[in-house]
Amino acid sequence: MTDTDLDTARPEAKPAERLARRPLPGDLGTEAQIARIIRVDQAGEYGAARIYAGQLSVLGKSPVGATIRHMEEQEQVHLDTFNTLMVERRVRPTALQPLWKVAGYALGAATALMGERAAMACTVAVEEAIDEHYAQQAERLGLGEADLKATIETFRAEELEHRDIGIAHEAELTTGYPVLYTLIKSGTRAVIWVAERI
């Protein structure tokens, strides 16, 4: 088969498809994209673990304490996994991690002080933002990162489980739920954007 035969055997890509395959100026390379994914996911799991720690400081001995502890334990597994990936892939953590330590704990404790439903409203808002984020990452990851994609999809399922637990514990009946939910979810999205870059 000649070069001409190969050219005619392959259907010509449409202009839009050709452009989609070419990186644009400013696009991150594959390694930089993976580093960004690992960095932001480690930061997110760290923040989530701190939120649950804050909630447990207030509600740990209440009837919902065991449920929050279960979610915190799952978040710790997620965090440990991303901590390991950071070492293996030589990815630096976000420079704002000390801020997440304080802010995550404060958010968890503050919502818990507002009551069990408010703590669960926080869980619903945070976990829905993380679900959207993980879904976008899983969609972008190719075959070369099958293990990372599988990890993200597993963790995403557990984040959705936490969201469902929050709803089952009447998160939506929190006084001012729409405002609280919107503020926390918007804040979580902003933190994700920052942690990817700094």
Automatic annotation (TrEMBL):
Source organism lineage?
Answer: Bacteria, Pseudomonadati, Pseudomonadota, Alphaproteobacteria, Rhodospirillales
Task: Output the superkingdom of the source species.
Answer: Bacteria
Enumerate the cofactors the protein uses. Fe cation
Binding of Fe cation 2: at which residues?
Answer: E75, E127, E159, H162
Record carries keyword Cell membrane: yes
- Chief location category: membrane
InterPro entries in the cross-refs = Ferritin-like, Ferritin-like_SF, Ubq_synth_Coq7
Q: Gene Ontology terms, cellular component aspect? A: plasma membrane
Protein name per its UniProtKB record? 3-demethoxyubiquinol 3-hydroxylase
Biological process (GO), any one: ubiquinone biosynthetic process
Q: Where does Fe cation 1 bind?
A: E45, E75, H78, E159
One Pfam match, given by its short name, reads: COQ7
Q: In which pathway does it act?
A: Cofactor biosynthesis; ubiquinone biosynthesis
What organism does the record attribute this protein to?
A: Nitrospirillum iridis
**Topology of the protein relative to the lipid bilayer:** Peripheral membrane protein
Function text: Catalyzes the hydroxylation of 2-nonaprenyl-3-methyl-6-methoxy-1,4-benzoquinol during ubiquinone biosynthesis.
> Which portions of the chain have biased composition (kind: Basic and acidic residues)?
7-20
Q: How is the cofactor bound?
A: Binds 2 iron ions per subunit.
Q: Where is this region: Disordered?
A: 1-25
The UniProt similarity line reads: Belongs to the COQ7 family.
Gene name of the record = coq7
The record's catalysed reaction(s) read: a 5-methoxy-2-methyl-3-(all-trans-polyprenyl)benzene-1,4-diol + AH2 + O2 = a 3-demethylubiquinol + A + H2O
Keywords tagged on the record: Cell membrane, Iron, Membrane, Metal-binding, Monooxygenase, Oxidoreductase, Ubiquinone, Ubiquinone biosynthesis
Give any GO molecular function from the UniProt entry. Answer: metal ion binding
List the EC numbers from the record.
1.14.99.60
